[in-house]
Structure formats: C-alpha cells, structure tokens
Amino acid sequence: MYSLCSGDATQVCLHGCCMVKPFSAPDPQKRVPRPRSTAADCRREFAATTAACFFSNTQFTNHESLPSLQESFTQFQEAYPLYSETEQADQIRAQEYYHLLHSNHTCLDYIGIGLFSHCQIQIMSSSPTTIASTSSPPSNLPSPQSLNIPLFGISYKSVNLKSQLQYGGQESALESAMKRKIMSYLNISENDYSMVFTANRTSAFKLLAESYPFQSSKKQLLTVYDYESEAVEAMVDISEKRGAKVMSAEFSWPRLRINSAKLKKMVVRNKKKKKRGLFAFPLQSRMTGARYHYLWMNIAQENGWHVLLDACGLGPKDMDSFGLSLFHPDFLICSFYKVFGENPTGFGCLFVKKSCVPILEASTSTGIVNLVPAKKLSQLPGYSSGTDTEPEKTSKFEFQEELHTSSSFSGPLTIQTTLSGRFEYEQGETSELPTTEGTAKHDKSETSKIIEMEKVADLFQQNNKVSGKEGLEIECRGLDHVDSLGLVLISRRARDLINWLVNALTKLHHPNTEERSPLVRIYGPKIKFDRGPALAFNVFDWKGEKIEPILLQKLADRNNISLSYGFLHHLWFSDKYEAEKQRVIERRETGAKGMVENKRKGKDDLGITVVTAALGFLTNFDDIYRLWAFIARFLDADFVEKERWRYTALNQKTIEV
Question: Which of 258, 330, 411, 642 is 20–30 Å from 37 (CA)?
Fold first, then answer.
C-alpha cells in the first residue's frame, strides 16, 4: 500500500496531508521533471486510497465474518500512516477521560465543544481536607490564582439584549474569566465583538430573531440547513411573526450539495436594497457532514445581507481555518457542554459585531443567563443546567432524563471567599437538578426565596470583585486539550476515521437477495477528503424496508453506543431522480415523539428521518469499529426480534416498534 499524498508538494496543502520533501540542490545531469502534488491531487488520491485499501472487492454478509478489531486497525494504519501523529489525542483520552474506557461507552451524539475533562471534575470534587492537609498541592491540581469551577449552573435573567451588548452588565469573576477564555479559544477579538451567555443554542437563535429589525425594515431571513433544527425553526417562527419573508436553500439529491443556482438567485437579487436581511449559514451540516464554502458568506455580505455564522456544528478548531480567519460574520453562535461522555449540559454564546449592535431593536426576553456556582442558585425557579434538547442532539429519548441528570452534579461544588481572598472548594450536598427546554419558569409564590438567593448571588459577585476578577483565569482542560492538538492534527484524525467508517458501512450487504442489497444507505457525501466528521444513514432489512431510526437508536443504546437521529429536509430532486424521490421521501407525522412540531402553515413535512453519528476529537478507532460491528448485526434477519425477546426476558420495558 502507498502513503497518502506522497510526492513533492508544489502548493501548500492547508490540511497538512501532503508530505513535503527536504530541499536538495538539483542535479544538473538529471533534468527529469518532478511530479507535482497539489491540494486537488491530495483529495483525489485520498479518496482512491480509502476506496481501494479497505476490503477492496469485498462484501460482508454476516456479522461473524468481519475482520477483528486488531486486524482492521493494522490495515487502517497502513493506509493512513500519518494517523499515528494524532497519538496525543489517545493519550489525552486515556489520562483525562478514562471514564470512557471504564464504562465501555461509545459516545457519538455530542455536538459542540467540551469545556472540562473528566479528570478535572474528579480533582475538583476531592475533599477539602485532602487538599488542606497537603503542604504543597499536587502538580495536577489548579493553582490558587486560577478560578476553577467546573460545576456551575445558569440562572435566567430578563434583560434587553441591545442594552446588554452596548453597556454590559455586572459580571462575576466566573463569567468574566469564562468569557475571556472562550473568546481567546475562538480567536475572537473583544475589540470587535460583544458577547452574551445564553441558555443554549436555541435561546441564542431566539434572542437574535427577536432583536433583529425584521419588522421595521421588512427584511428577509435566508437559511442554509439540510436538516430540521429546533433552533432554526424557532428563529423562522419568530421572524415570520415579525413580518420577515423566509427563504431556504435547497440541497441536491443524492450528495446533498447546495443547489448553487437557486441559492445565488436568492442571495444576489434585488440589489437596490442596501440591507437585505439575515443570512443564517452553518458552514457544515452537523448531520450529514456536508461542508459549504465560506465564500457564500462573502457573497451575501457583498449583496447587503447580515451574516449569522452558526459555529455549533464546526470542528473543535475550525475557527482557525484560513477562510474564517479572513472573514468576520456579523453574528456568531456557538455552544459548549461540560464534559464529553458524561455531562452534556452547558450554555450557548451569542457574539455580535460591535458595528452591528446599533441596528438591533430593543426587545426584552428570556434567554440570556448568568453563570453561577451550582449550589448557589440550584433552588431558584429560573435555574437550569443548560440542557439543549434539540432533536439532532437529543439522545436516548425515553432514557433522556438519565443522560441529562449526569453524575457530575451528584456533588456540586461551591466557592467561599476567605478574608485573604483565596478560594476554597467545598463538596456540596447531593441535589437533583431540574431539566429544562430552554425556557425560564418563574413561581410568584416564592418571591421571598428568589430575593434571598439573589442576595447570595450579589454577595458572590461582590466578593469576586474584591479579589480582582480581571486577574483571574479559569482552567478549561477540554479547550486546552484542543489547543494543544491544533487544527491540522484534529482535522486529519477526524478525516481518516469518518471516511473509514463510511467505506466500511457500504461493504455490508444482505445475503440471499438479488444483487445482494446494501444494508446501509448513507445520505450526503460519501468518501471525501473534506467532508465533516458527521454521518447520516439508515439501515434496511433484507426486504428493503427501513428500520426505524428511533428503534435503532435504542438498540444501540443498549449496546453502550450513543447515537442520535434527525430529519433531513429541503431536498431537491432533478428529473433524473424523480422515480427515486417517490421511494425515499416520507411525510413525517407532525408532533411525533422526539421531533419538533411544525407550526408553520402551508409547509409540507416532507423529508427523510435518519440516524446520525458525530465524531469528536476524542473519538478513536475502537469507537467506529464498535459502531460498524453493531450495524453489521442487522444482517441477521432475526436480530431485532431476538433483541426484543432478550429485553423482555430481563424484565425490562418492551421496545415499541
């Protein structure tokens, strides 16, 4: 087998895939033209190698015939020799996220960016007596000058977004330190952008929709999403009520690329208008892994649109990419969760370019939050753990409560400021945290309790100010680990893993059927160099009938594999695929369990329900092999019935098909 992208690189490959040979003086006696390796050559060679090196001309019709994990990994390393350079990620996983190994859990349902590591949480949960009795703190413990509060909660506040952006508000040391950390991580300048914390991604979209001048200026909303998103649907509903004309890009079947001709017409028409409206653009589908060129944002701005960049589906360091370092969107939304594989709760962030703040309209609504230590406001009616319950992110459904009430909160930490100004960490009592859907719930009968708790929060903020909040830093090991790996290594790792998985899934075929029908259908890009680390697919039985994504997700959950599911829409079929359209398109039942109920009139609920898997920088080869081996079990025609019988025999609740 040969290495990917071998040969001399005459053009710089930004993805780090091309091997550039050391410079040597040319031999005047030999004037043989050297091979040229451009970025385009790298992409073509990568796809060819992936298709040829793994199970070439092989179809697996029985899950017991799959090659072993070790055999598959050896072949994987031979085809992708540069993958070994990402070994640092495996070391980080083993040292900081060892709970994944102990629980034997494969997490393929996390979307966003992790703040803390499991190890950090365990260290911070150590008893104060252990720390106090040590003459010198261990090397892995945070320094006294650091504000290390991995266990925090959020408290809703009803404020005017425009005023909050213009004049700011009273910030605690925790909020100030977290804001500096996040803006530094994303390479966003505080001189150019203002930022607010939101309850989740959906809240950020709602806040912007309620403040953007749709009504007064009769502006438009143009979205580019190939999947249904609760956050985007909320923005669409609000903007329509405020008088906006809503348009959406369409995606061409079967690769689900943007229908460029149609999108260009919507972006560039009516050039007489100075400000056309809001252009919501994700750069990458967090469901199919399809990537879109950042120049669409540039075209939109040149034609009078304000650009909202949805960074929630981007890779951990994609904000460092060449295109994004040159382009500055008017608005940016991203989301963070606490601990990968353990605690999916967190918060969202809404960034607004300071030059765009004056165009916003005054609108007081819920959604902006304060970050506070978990114990301080855990009893407040407006308190939330920050869970985002979008359907493409939601996992386990009936077991959803189990996921959202993670063990990380079994002993929340609090902070006490001593007279000397040092922070002491204290193990809190066990308390159950309420789950929310991004809306504040207020109880008027507990007004006195709220006032009392607000005094506690004020005292906490005052104490932090005495200690000098500008000098404090918060340790976020999750972000630090990503920074230590960098864009090139993270991209290479994700690219190799996701393409191996795509290729492996397409090798599964039903036996004893005409032409050996494939077990799996993948939607969107297949083997591709620059595809994103997300995958949308469905599994079909030997009769050609689709296995319901909800059922498959539950069966995967019982095998310690966390998947999600979602709904692809805005699909465009050319005349060539009209017959196929009749077979694949389905009308989803409005209000189905786990889905967003569509309240917009006149919109057909047509699309495809799919299973989704998302790979993070901590995902390793074992994870994707386990998923492949699990999906292969559906080659057994009786697998689903066997699982139902086994589940019932264990006195568990029967799964509804």
Answer: 258
Cβ atoms within 10 Å of 192's Cβ, excluding its own: 12
Backbone angles phi, psi at 46, to 5 degrees: -60, -50
d(C-alpha 92, C-alpha 94), whole Å? 5
DSSP state of 560: T
Which residue, among 263, 133, 90, 155, has the nearest Cα to 621 in the 3D structure?
A: 90
**8 Å CB contact between 292 and 258:** yes
Spatial neighbors of 210 by CB under 8 A, at least 6 apart, are 161, 238, 242, 363, 365
- Specify the DSSP element, H or E, that contains 483: helix 477-505
Residues in the chain: 657
Of the candidates 538, 541, 554, 544, the one whose C-alpha atom is nearest the C-alpha of residue 656 is 554
What tens digit of pLDDT does each residue of 79-91 get?
899 999 999 999 9
Q: Pairing between strand 564-568 and 606-614?
A: antiparallel
Which residues does 431 contact at the CB level (< 8 Å), separation at least 6? 375, 378, 409, 412
Give the separation between CA 530 and CA 15, rounded to whole angstroms: 9
Q: What's the pTM value of the predicted model, to 2 decimals? A: 0.78
Bridge pairing between strands 520-523 and 534-539: antiparallel
Please compute the mean of the pLDDT values over residues 595-613 and round it to a whole number: 69
For residue 381, cis peptide bond before it (omega within 30 degrees of 0):
no
pLDDT value at 621 more than 60: yes
Q: Which CA distances in Å does 232 have to 38, 160, 264, 533?
A: 38, 21, 21, 21
Q: Please tell me the distance from the alpha carbon of residue 90 to that of residue 111, in angstroms, as a whole number.
A: 20
Cα distance from N-terminal residue to C-terminal residue, the chain: 45
Compute CA 510 distance to the chain's CA centroid, rounded to the nearest angstrom.
Answer: 33
pLDDT tens digits along 256-274: 999 999 999 999 976 565 6
Query: In angstroms, rounded to a whole number, what is the distance separating the alpha carbons of residues 54 and 507?
Result: 9
- Whole-angstrom CA distances from 434 to 105, 154, 201, 369, 409 are 25, 12, 19, 16, 11
Q: How far is CA 122 from each of CA 97, 412, 427, 599, rounded to the nearest angstrom?
A: 10, 11, 11, 44
